[in-house]
Amino acid sequence: MSRSSWAFAHGMVVLELDGRFPPGADLDAAWRTGCEAFAGALQGKTEGGAL
Hints:
- It is a single chain.
- The chain is an all-alpha fold.
- Helices cover 71% and strands 0% of the residues.
- The protein is built from 2 helices and no strands.
- Helix 1 runs antiparallel to helix 2.
- It starts with a helix and ends in a 5-residue tail after the last helix.
- The mean pLDDT is 90.
């Protein structure tokens, strides 16, 4: 889980710094969606779900 969350965050930062998102892209929503996905996966893990 830690490697995948690092890869997500690193990739988002690199894409943003390099100007690779289209004009008008909602970066806050992209970050929120990614973070919510990881939070959901962690919640499933703590509730006995398999990752």
